[in-house]
Design a protein that fits this description.
alpha+beta; 8 helices; Alpha-Beta Plaits; 44% helix
Length: 245
């Protein structure tokens, strides 16, 4: 069986995001808008907004853009009204897929998502059809060759839920959604800044796929990522590292 690697998946997504810097800014802008609209414009009392600002800083988004998005959300400037919606379905081979979208036109968005599923041999499902297979949590990722003992000691002291060492030597620190920011800050303070850190939806059980099916699935997931209203795409596929090559 081909080797499987979460680190390969992370690198694949980062390369795709770097190639679409403008779209990354659009997604962060929408996240800033929704976070500020729901919880107010003060990041000290709004954890979701604080997380969105962290994303903006990591992507080198101009400070003026961040402040403008927050002001539009809080009514200080005129802005667009966005709605969050999650679509659930299955890709070919029974792989569960979640597509988180932020849109100002739900009819347009559902049409585009439904077309993507049918075009790639999948099926769009009903609310709750696959969501139960995923948990929202924080993941801090370290490249193969990182100091396992140091990371484990610091992570557990910071309040992380678990530390996983993958077959390829990469390391994942798992946190609850609520503790994510405090754990990231503690790891940085310990001079153990992660190579990648995010709030994500992680499947409770995974479906192994072949290299060929993995390549087809990646094409489908990339297609979904490219839709204008897409924020995040998740699946429960365990994709072989060779599929990313």
């Amino acid at each position: 069986m081909a080797g499987h690697s979460k680190w390969a998946n992370i690198q694949h997504r980062k390369k795709a995001q770097d190639a679409k810097r403008g779209k990354v800014f659009t997604r962060i802008n929408r996240e800033l808008t929704i976070a500020a609209r729901e919880g107010g414009g003060d990041p000290d009392s709004n954890p979701r907004l604080r997380l969105a600002i962290e994303k903006a800083n990591a992507a080198n988004m101009p400070k003026d853009n961040v402040e403008r998005a927050i002001k539009k959300a809080t009514g200080e400037l005129e802005g667009v009204s966005y709605e969050e919606i999650t679509y659930e379905g299955y890709a070919a081979g029974g792989v569960a897929v979640l597509v988180e979208c932020v849109t100002d036109n739900t009819n347009r968005t559902v049409g585009e998502v439904r077309h993507a599923f049918s075009k790639h041999g999948g099926n769009l499902g009903t609310d709750g059809s696959v969501n139960y297979l995923f948990n929202r949590l924080g993941v801090l990722s370290y490249a193969p060759g990182s100091d396992e003992e140091q990371i484990m000691d610091a992570a557990l002291e910071a309040g992380a839920d678990d530390v996983l060492v993958e077959d390829d030597g990469s390391i994942e620190v798992i946190t609850s959604f609520q503790d994510y920011l405090s754990v990231v800050e503690a790891m940085k303070a310990a001079e153990l800044k992660p190579d990648n850190a995010e709030i994500t939806m992680r499947a409770t059980t995974e479906v192994e796929v072949s290299v060929e099916d993995g390549q087809k699935l990646l094409n489908f997931l990339d297609f979904l990522e490219d839709l204008d209203d897409t924020q995040n795409v998740y699946s429960n596929a365990d994709i072989p590292a060779e599929a990313y090559e």
